[in-house]
Design brief:
globular, about 40% helix, six-stranded mixed sheet, 12 helices, Diaminopimelate Epimerase, Chain A, domain 1, inorganic pyrophosphatase (n-terminal core), about 325 residues, 2 domains, single chain
Length: about 325
Amino acid sequence: MKSKFIPQMDSVIKCIEDNDVFVVTSHVSPDGDNIGSTLGMHRFLEKIGKKVYHVLDDDIPSNLVFLSKEVEKITSTELNEENYVMLALDCGDEKRICTSDDVKRNASVRVCIDHHASNDASFCEINYIDSKASSTCELVYNIIRRYGDLKSEDYIDEVIASRLYTGLSTDTGNFQYSSTAPSSFEMAKVLLEHGAERDMIIQKLYQSNSPNYYRLLGDALNTLSIAEAPNGQLVASICVSIDMMKKHSIGYNDIDGITTYTRDIENVEVGIFLKEKRKGEIKISLRSKNDIDVSKIAMQFNGGGHVRAAGCTINDTIENAEKIIKERVLRAF
């Protein structure tokens, strides 16, 4: 393996070899890369004889539950270990790590494996951060391959392959997004050769939405609002309230797929999806096609992410949050 990140990988590997107990966790509002990278690492650590806990104080989206059937997810209050390493995967910000402050603080060592451009590598002692990687699953894949090279053994099995393929698929938009690189296809090739269940993964991720999801989507699309930037490009926004989710019995973590509808409109450069987590707390997802770095916009609201995909939170009504974020986006043109 040739990579300028080998020293970072080796620092993670040394930490793994030097310790016996690990907590693997990720960010709030889990997604495919979150769950895929966390559980891919979980399986790898178990294979090499480590004790591992999957700690996440949030619900796994229904379309990703298939990945976690063989792994017990516990909450922070259920963790009863005193000496452990915390592996924070796919987290660009300490505040987004989905555990209690006690779990973060009590770790003997904290390791960050991440690909967010907004990650300043300041909240963990050991870091492997590559903002150009397609996904955190790709970084976990690199670590496992590097470890295998060092031990002259292949550690990727069908379970690891399927978990990592899931995150690779979701974070590249099934190989549509600009984050997709030659290494993404090479990784997909290797994972498929190792038994990744591609057809099942695609069905679970993209072809298994409930009827109620589409009923909610219909209501959400009725909120579509489009504004024109000074250069003639468009900004689109869609809002989903708590009442809309309750009406259709849809969970907060099960509607992120609506985000793409804001961007996938002709002449729209930036799409904005707003969803109400609770009254006065609005989660905002930003997506761009070409020229606008939405991570810089998200960072203005203590959020972050990638150039083409980022997020933040605004504490206000959903109506006011839409006005605030749209005004800030239009300033970026």
